[in-house]
Amino acid sequence: MVVVLLDSLNRHLLGPYGASEFDTPNIDRLAARSLRFTRHLAGSLPCIPARHDILCGALDFLWKPWGSVEVWEDAITAQLADAGVTTALVTDHPHLFETGGENYHTDFTAWTYLRGGESDPWRTRGDPSWAGAPVLPAASATPPKPYDLSRTWFRDEADFPGPRTMTAAADWLRHQAPTEDRFLLFVDEFDPHEPFDTPEPWASRYDPGWTGPRLIWPPYGSRIVETGVLTADQARHVRANYGAKLSMIDHWLGTVLDAMDDTDRWRDTAFVLCTDHGHYLGERDLFGKPNVPVYRELGHIPLLVAWPGQPARQVDALTTSVDLHATLADVFGVRAAHRTHGRSLRPLITGEVPAVRDHLLCGVWGRQVQVVDAHRMYSRAPVGSNFPLALWSNRWSTMPRPGHPQHRLPRPDRRAELATMPGSDVPVICQPFAPGDLLPFHAIDVETDRHRLFDLDTDPEQAVDLAGSAAERDAVDLLRHALVAVDAPAEQLQRLGLE
Predict the structure, then answer these.
(1) I need a surface site. Which of 121, 213, 317, 456 has the fewest CB within 10 A?
(2) CA-to-CA distance for 499 and 486, rounded, in angstroms?
(3) pLDDT, tens digit, for every residue of 340-364?
């Protein structure tokens, strides 16, 4: 199997899903031979929690905001190693090598890290010998990020991290992939995640009239144009820069597809294109991944699966990220020792069943919790206040935020207790939080007492909120049932008013 994860890949901007705003000819090319999943949704968000869903198979967001593989579980690569499966990771994703993500790569047979992306501390100063070429003038991040220095060292398009990652993945398929043994190639590509930085001709492709430094760092928040954070022209420009990066990485994805063609891999190798989540680009006047419910633009994500012997077709069954882990386990005949939440997609792919699940959970730790079934999406906020709230982890970390030391996660204190995770007897630190505590930033300023309910059959754009109607009672019951079914922590039901 080959799994290519493109970070922040917006389903609603891809050609196979009916979009035409940006060009994605190689994703279109892959879709022409793939099963196109139309109701695939994120589980745990953002980046590292989503990778935990895929590589460990257990929902992360109900217990912690961001973190490594824990001591009571293994990434699937550990079971694959025991089964004699060769595994390779090719990535430019900086978070996999920072505190909180640093052990997802360790059980791969081999791994390659291409340096220079977003928060990667790759260089200590800019390149004085190559200033301005091919990199175009761009506004720095606030506060500055390592990429603002790294970008000055790229001498041509092929030096950017995304192109180097795709080139390395294609090289592995051509020269290192086993000829007879089973293998998993996992390509964790950070593009089209910000910074939305590209050289020409991509940079001007969708906004040729822009003058001045390019805006490659999108703001995160709501009411961005309304409150003047961006002008309408600036908002359009940021969106165009996302499109430029999307089209550039699509171009380099073509090198991986070429390698599949040239080595005749399609006959015996499944190829999966997926993502962790989307990225708001002005829809609902939102940008980034702000502290709002997980609307369709962020949570309804693409999934393309090219499967040997299966014709291209549309699959409308409900699926989510942990199901990718279950599918890998099914294909290679391995089983996790820890509790998981996924359902294998294999019987959907082979046409044996019309569905593998009837609902799913989605969310960010410390924020709203979403439940989705065949007909509705219900987002429930904390009731009264965002407490009680607790973090469950033995590998104490949260998402690093360079330049914001005040958001460093405090150490556990004397209020912490030892508890156990569902399906495990390994003691785990459960750290409660109270009003006045410094919280992981995901849980700061969370909206309370504001629930949302959408009928996905009649309102797929999620524009008409039905919360407060008689239909909400059934949605509340479904959410309670879904949380109890995964043995969610008691404080989650309490903070949502569901105990």
Answers:
(1) 213
(2) 15
(3) 999 999 999 999 999 999 999 999 9
